[in-house]
Amino acid sequence: MIGGFLMKAASRRLFSAAASVLLAATLFGAGGQPEAVTGSPAVSPDDPTEVGWRLLAKLNYRTGEKTEELAALDGKLVKIPGFTVPLEDFASSATEFLLVPYVGACIHTPPPPPNQLVYIEMDDGKRAKMDGWNPVWVEGVLSIEMTESVYGHVGFTISGQRVYPYES
């Protein structure tokens, strides 16, 4: 009887720890780090600027107002972590898709707010692999503009140059 009680208590602790990890992943997105923009002194000017979801969330999608830090990235080469959502049913690769901060975004209604959605259109008709369960990095030129998709309004557009598996 005591052994069964201890097993249930251990299972609850394990479940609670797993739930905490899932909550952190949801709050911080694939980037993991809460920093808005990261970089190091050794980064070359040609390297993309890493942008986190917290910085993107600073876009006031109702008024279009953006922070100076966010406005400085408009038209610049960036790198954003996230999860892909194809705009075509059953697509294993796509030339256009949405990037979202956590698994399952856009599958449910209502969709995330526009400042948590990035519309990606790949350059030169390149196709990106769609695997919504695994995080990716998307590199390309960022535009801060409202775009309408089948999932609603999107606050950002990236002219995609490269999509590759996320590794921190």
Keywords:
168 residues, alpha+beta, OB fold (Dihydrolipoamide Acetyltransferase, E2P), two-stranded antiparallel sheet, 3 helices, 21% helix, globular, disordered N terminus
Task: Give a written overview of the molecule.
This protein is of the alpha+beta class and 168 residues long. 21% of the residues lie in helices and 34% in strands. The protein contains three helices and nine strands; from the N terminus they run H-E-E-H-H-E-E-E-E-E-E-E. The protein has a five-stranded mixed β-barrel. A two-stranded antiparallel sheet has the order 4-7. The radius of gyration is 18 Å and the shape is globular.
Relevant CATH superfamily: Protein of unknown function (DUF3299)
* Mean pLDDT across residues: 79
Distance between the termini: 45 Å
Number of helices: 3
Q: What count of domains describes the coordinates?
A: 1
Low-confidence stretches: 3-41
* Count of β-strands: 9
Strand order of the largest sheet: 3-5-6-9-8
Alpha carbon gyration radius: 18 Å
Q: What fraction of residues sit in β-strands?
A: 25-35%
* Broad CATH class: Mainly Beta
CATH structural architecture = Beta Barrel
Helix-strand topology string: HEEHHEEEEEEE
The CATH topology name reads OB fold (Dihydrolipoamide Acetyltransferase, E2P)
Q: Give a short account of the largest sheet.
A: 5 strands, mixed, barrel
Structural class: alpha+beta
Shape descriptor: globular
